[in-house]
């Protein structure tokens, strides 16, 4: 390989070399870290909630005034919803996964425990919950209808039986024998018995540290005059059922507002709108960055080819083949890119370190940088290919012409 | 002469249209990326009430569990309890003070053509209006006597007055909310806060409050806040137990007109908490805080981390675009060594050559900047489409337009300076020999 002449030619245009190298370095550092952030966001967005999101929606009812009998209305609404055509199942619930608002509490193994054993969200539901949410029972049993208590809002929850998510069961009882065990939902007795374990149920908060710790508590408890219902439609009939449910509930009792109608698909979209926006913005910057860098290489290489037309002609006249010329420019690009990439690799890790310290971001996995190396080598070679081919077509006769 | 250089520059740029476009678009993209993100960052974090942000202080008391701080890093809770809110308001030791919380109520319009709707509003004391200074369109705030007498009065926001009364002066009329009638004493004008800084616990970029109701009146309704509520131990059964509990669900602001008043209030708070400790409350060490508006916004990270990362990325991208432009201009000017040599030989001074090429790079920079400004506008449209809650912070204001133009000129000069300097160092003799 004719590395030496390439190097000595490069040394004559140090500044241009440094500029291209710098561009490659910054590009590598930014693209690696940005891709890593995008990957984390997509991973988060792909976490399953544990429920059937395709066929479910939820809605709220808000009654007027002190005389409103929220408990009776709740029962009437549930009965009405369950007999609507297209409705497969319905339950009352205070919240749903991904919704961003709900209840959380500590859960204890001993009375008067100072720090709780695990944190959990609480879904206040009735015996139709597993069917409506689509939570998968992996141990124990569902609630019996007679277990669903009636609680006045503001009073303490004292559930005799609860169903917990597998993640919470494992956090409370690492030996895997949670079923049938007693836990304290509060600091004082009575205890609650774990009667069932469901495979997965996410909390309402997507950025929660313990997102899969959830507890189902069987009780009817309107929040003041406010109740919420989750409805599962028969497959493919969700949208028509949503309209019908809103209309029928409004007609059944005019002294309240039926609203906040949301399909679980909408709930998921809203929950991850910020992550989605971040991924799109970073993706756009990556594309623009790669394009600018590639075009920069094309531009610079074109000028070098134009500038050296006479030298190329001379080399061709002295016996260099077209392939030699092509290889010369490809090699030159490879050297510059490699120098840039080495600097960029260090910069990528430095940037990751800074993000870790400033934003508690996780560490950039090692393989991002080598993959980045390969991609940018390829990008550089492709970018320089056009100008290099043009150079290889310079006829030897050019050497003999004057300007 | 400058006109002639401009002509030369334009001709030279026209000779390589692709390259020129590449440089202009490069700068424009860099400017757009950095200015779009900077605008959002700037507006999100900007002082919402600059004339008195250092006088308004957010009250935090640490009534949390002895075993576990509210925040892992030991900061006190972000809200206070009902009993402390009322005790501090009734003590009246600040120049102005108001406890407040977020409340959602159904509104039943008199006009039967309008369906009843749920409305999000705020419960506060009359001082709220003097402290945060919303402008009134009709009427005014209720007064302290009405605070004391639990008056059934309400102040409406502009939009809801539009909806209920067609935007007319509705003061003196009544509105039915959650089954009771309230007399309208005032209607606000448009109150376009960039961030709802007085209640950061429930989202800095949430929709504006639609109504305001006296704190004392709302408590009669026994309505809990529709905002955040946190308890470190069970409040017990019923409404009265809840009010007496250590659950935090209210925000409390005080206005203190001088540093001396701030110090006085701080010591008042300390003695208040020490008194409460004697009653067996406040098991944690003394940890009261009185952050002002900007400190509180920083504490609650009103400027999201994503936006900070995006801004850093935007500027890194601008640097890459500038490096790219420098390289391209350098290559271009180097190729023109012959022309430069000729001009120098014919009597042009280095200064003339310098001016000529700086004009050329200036044209590139300015075109890039203007295109960048347009792209920044588009970028902000995209941000508003991507983030529903950023409608108020993704707008260009005059500061940002001027900053964009300034940044573009600076970028172009930076990008053009070195290549230009190199160009005018060409030795005329060396170029003419061939």
Model description:
The complex is a heterodimer of chains A (about 400) and B (about 425). Chain A has about 400 residues and is α+β, with helices and mostly antiparallel strands. Chain A has two domains: about 5-45 and about 275-400, no CATH class; about 55-265, no CATH class. Chain A is built from eleven helices and twelve strands. In chain A, a hairpin with an 8-residue loop joins β8 and β9. In chain A, α2 crosses α11 and α10 packs antiparallel against α11 (about 370-390). The radius of gyration of chain A is 33 Å and the shape is elongated. Chain B is an alpha+beta fold and about 425 residues long. Chain B has helices at about 1-15, 15-45, 80-90, 125-130, 145-150, 160-165, 215-220, 240-245, 260-280, 295-300, 305-335, 335-345, 350-385, 400-425, 430, and strands at about 55-60, 95-110, 115-125, 135-140, 155, 175, 180-190, 210-215, 250-255, 290. In chain B, strands 2-3-8-5-7-6 form a six-stranded mixed barrel. In chain B, a hairpin with an 8-residue loop joins β2 (about 95-110) and β3 (about 115-125). The longest helix of chain B has about 35 residues, at about 350-385. Chain B is elongated, with a radius of gyration of 31 Å. The two termini of chain B are about 30 Å apart. The chains are: A alpha+beta (about 400), B alpha+beta (about 425). Chains A and B meet through α2, β12 and α8 of A and α2, β2, α8 and α11 of B.
Give me a quick take on this structure.
Chain A has eleven helices and twelve strands. Chain A has 403 residues and is of the alpha+beta class.
């Amino acid at each position: 390989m004719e590395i030496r002449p390439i190097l000595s030619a490069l040394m004559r245009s140090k500044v241009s070399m440094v500029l291209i190298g710098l561009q490659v370095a910054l590009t590598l550092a930014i693209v690696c870290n940005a891709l890593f952030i995008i990957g984390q966001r997509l991973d988060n967005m792909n976490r399953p909630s544990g429920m059937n999101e395709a066929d479910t929606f939820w809605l709220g009812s808000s009654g007027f005034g002190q005389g409103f009998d929220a408990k009776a209305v709740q029962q009437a609404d549930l009965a009405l919803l369950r007999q609507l055509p297209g409705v497969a199942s319905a339950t009352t619930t205070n919240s749903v996964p991904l919704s961003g608002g709900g209840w959380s509490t500590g859960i204890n193994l001993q009375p008067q425990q100072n720090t709780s054993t695990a944190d959990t969200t609480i879904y206040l539901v009735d015996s139709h919950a597993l069917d409506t949410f689509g939570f998968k029972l992996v141990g124990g049993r569902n609630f019996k209808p007679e277990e669903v208590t009636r609680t006045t809002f503001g009073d303490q929850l004292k559930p005799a039986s609860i169903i917990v998510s597998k993640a919470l069961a494992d956090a409370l009882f690492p030996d895997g024998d949670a079923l049938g065990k007693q836990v304290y939902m509060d600091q004082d007795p009575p205890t609650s018995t774990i009667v069932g374990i469901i495979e997965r149920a996410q909390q309402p908060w997507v950025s929660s540290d313990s997102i899969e710790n959830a507890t189902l508590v069987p009780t009817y408890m309107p929040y003041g005059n406010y109740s919420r219902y989750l409805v599962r439609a028969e497959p493919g009939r969700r949208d028509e059922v949503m309209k019908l449910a809103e209309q029928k509930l409004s007609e059944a009792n005019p002294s309240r507002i039926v609203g906040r109608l949301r399909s679980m698909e909408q709930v998921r979209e809203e929950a991850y709108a910020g992550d989605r926006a971040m991924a799109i913005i970073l993706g756009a910057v990556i594309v623009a960055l790669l394009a600018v860098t590639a075009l920069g290489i094309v531009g610079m290489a074109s000028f070098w080819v134009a500038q050296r037309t006479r030298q190329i002609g001379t080399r061709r006249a002295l016996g260099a083949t077209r392939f030699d010329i092509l290889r010369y420019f490809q090699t030159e690009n490879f050297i510059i890119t490699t120098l840039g990439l080495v600097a960029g690799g260090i910069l990528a890790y430095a940037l990751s370190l800074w993000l870790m310290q400033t934003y508690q971001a996780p560490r950039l996995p090692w393989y991002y940088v080598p993959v980045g190396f390969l991609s940018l080598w390829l990008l550089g070679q492709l970018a320089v290919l056009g100008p290099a081919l043009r150079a290889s077509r310079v006829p030897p006769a050019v050497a003999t012409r004057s300007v | 002469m400058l006109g002639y250089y401009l002509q030369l520059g334009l001709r030279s740029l026209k000779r390589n249209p692709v390259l020129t476009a590449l440089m202009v678009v490069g700068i424009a993209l860099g400017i757009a990326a950095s200015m779009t993100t900077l605008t959002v960052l700037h507006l999100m974090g900007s002082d919402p009430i600059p004339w008195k942000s250092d006088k308004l202080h957010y009250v935090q008391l640490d009534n949390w569990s002895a075993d576990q701080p509210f925040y892992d890093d030991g900061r006190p809770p972000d809200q206070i309890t009902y009993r402390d809110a009322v005790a501090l308001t009734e003590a009246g030791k600040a120049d102005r003070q108001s406890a407040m919380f977020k409340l959602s109520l159904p509104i039943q319009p008199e006009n039967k053509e309008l369906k009843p709707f749920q409305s999000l509003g705020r419960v506060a004391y009359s001082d709220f209006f003097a402290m945060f200074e919303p402008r009134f369109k009709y009427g005014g705030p209720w007064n302290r006597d009405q605070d004391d007498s639990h008056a059934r009065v309400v102040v409406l926001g502009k939009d809801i007055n539009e909806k209920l009364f067609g935007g007319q002066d509705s003061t003196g009329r009544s509105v039915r909310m959650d089954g009771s009638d309230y007399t309208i004493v005032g209607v606000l004008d448009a109150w376009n806060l960039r961030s709802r800084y007085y209640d950061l616990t429930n989202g800095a970029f949430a929709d504006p409050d639609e109504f305001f109701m006296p704190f004392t009146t709302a408590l009669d309704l026994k309505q809990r806040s529709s905002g955040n509520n946190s308890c470190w131990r069970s409040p017990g059964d019923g409404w009265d137990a809840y009010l007496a509990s250590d659950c935090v669900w209210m925000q409390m602001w005080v206005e203190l007109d001088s540093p001396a008043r701030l110090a006085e209030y701080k010591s008042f708070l300390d003695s208040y908490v020490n008194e409460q400790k004697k009653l067996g409350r406040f098991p944690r060490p003394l940890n009261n805080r009185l952050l002002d508006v900007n400190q509180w916004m920083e504490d609650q990270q009103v400027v999201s981390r994503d936006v900070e990362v995006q801004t850093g990325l935007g500027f890194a991208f601008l640097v890459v675009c500038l490096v790219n432009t420098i390289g391209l201009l350098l290559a271009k000017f180097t190729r023109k060594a012959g022309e430069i040599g000729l001009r120098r030989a014919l009597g042009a001074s280095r200064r003339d050559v310098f001016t000529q090429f700086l004009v050329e790079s200036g044209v590139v920079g300015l075109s890039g900047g203007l295109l960048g400004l347009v792209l920044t506008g588009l970028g902000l449209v995209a941000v508003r489409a991507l983030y529903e809650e950023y409608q108020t912070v993704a707008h260009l204001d005059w500061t940002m337009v001027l900053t964009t133009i300034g940044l573009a000129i600076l970028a172009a000069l930076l990008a053009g300076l070195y290549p230009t300097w190199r160009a005018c160092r060409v030795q005329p003799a060396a170029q003419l020999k061939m």
